[in-house]
């Protein structure tokens, strides 16, 4: 499963990006001592997700030709990458994924390819966003919008330092992925600025990626 997931992930990003995927339950690598404090008081499931995410990140760094390194968490729980490295980590549906490169920021997300309940739709989508989605299987499309926004939020954070709500960008799904439009000025991103992202559905997963 992970090799197929990594192949799919690689297609989300430009050349020069290294990716890795790891089944969380299969991870045996503990966090680096510099990372462990971030989840010292977390429940075991969260500790396992964190450890697998860092293990996937180190695998991606290795694929990029970078030496293994600690990836501690910042004040907003964001990964703190080695100098010159941009990256993103996500976990969902029992899988941890990571993408890294030398260059501009990245955002990655993974979700189960399953519908979200209607009571969650207004938390994620504006009425206009919801109305633009197909009526049939709308909950599944809302999940895709959710994943797209998660990837965008991770990509923009190193640039703006802003923690965004779901109303900060609007997402329009396309055949190749999605277009995210900033709803208001956010750091160096002016209202109306558009970010293109990729989205794939594979093996019961939604995989999304953004490269700024």
From TrEMBL:
SUPFAM superfamilies assigned to the protein according to its UniProt record, in alphabetical order: 4'-phosphopantetheinyl transferase
Family matches, as InterPro entries: 4-PPantetheinyl_Trfase_dom, 4-PPantetheinyl_Trfase_dom_sf, 4PPT_N, Enbac_synth_compD-like
UniProt-listed Pfam families: 4PPT_N, ACPS
Oligomer and partners: EntB, EntD, EntE, and EntF form a multienzyme complex called enterobactin synthase.
Lineage: Bacteria, Pseudomonadati, Pseudomonadota, Alphaproteobacteria, Rhodobacterales
Top-level lineage group: Bacteria
Reaction(s) catalysed by this chain's protein: apo-[aryl-carrier protein] + CoA = holo-[aryl-carrier protein] + adenosine 3',5'-bisphosphate + H(+); apo-[peptidyl-carrier protein] + CoA = holo-[peptidyl-carrier protein] + adenosine 3',5'-bisphosphate + H(+)
Protein family: Belongs to the P-Pant transferase superfamily. EntD family.
Function description: Involved in the biosynthesis of the siderophore enterobactin (enterochelin), which is a macrocyclic trimeric lactone of N-(2,3-dihydroxybenzoyl)-serine. The serine trilactone serves as a scaffolding for the three catechol functionalities that provide hexadentate coordination for the tightly ligated iron(2+) atoms.
Domain 4'-phosphopantetheinyl transferase N-terminal: 35-100
All copies of domain 4'-phosphopantetheinyl transferase, residue ranges: 105-182
Protein known as: Enterobactin synthase component D
Keywords assigned: Enterobactin biosynthesis, Transferase
Gene3D superfamilies: 4'-phosphopantetheinyl transferase domain (3.90.470.20)
């Amino acid at each position: 499963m992970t090799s197929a997931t990594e192949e799919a992930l690689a297609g989300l990003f430009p050349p020069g990006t290294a990716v890795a995927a790891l089944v969380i339950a299969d991870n045996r690598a503990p966090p680096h001592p510099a990372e462990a404090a971030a989840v010292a008081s977390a429940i075991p499931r969260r500790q396992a997700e964190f450890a697998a995410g860092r293990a996937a990140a180190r695998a991606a760094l290795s694929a990029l030709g970078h030496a293994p390194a600690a990836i501690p968490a910042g004040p907003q729980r964001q990964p703190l990458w080695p100098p010159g490295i941009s990256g993103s980590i996500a976990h969902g549906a029992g899988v941890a994924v990571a993408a890294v490169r030398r260059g501009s920021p990245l955002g990655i997300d993974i979700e189960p390819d399953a519908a979200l309940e209607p009571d969650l739709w207004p938390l994620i989508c504006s009425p206009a966003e919801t109305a633009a989605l197909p009526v049939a299987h709308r909950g599944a499309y809302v999940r895709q919008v959710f994943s797209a926004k998660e990837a965008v939020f991770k990509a923009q954070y190193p640039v703006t330092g802003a923690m965004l709500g779901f109303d900060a960008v609007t997402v329009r799904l396309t055949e190749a992925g999605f277009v995210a439009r900033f709803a208001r000025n956010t750091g160096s991103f002016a209202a109306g600025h558009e970010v293109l992202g990729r989205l794939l559905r594979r093996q019961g997963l939604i995989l999304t990626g953004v490269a700024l």
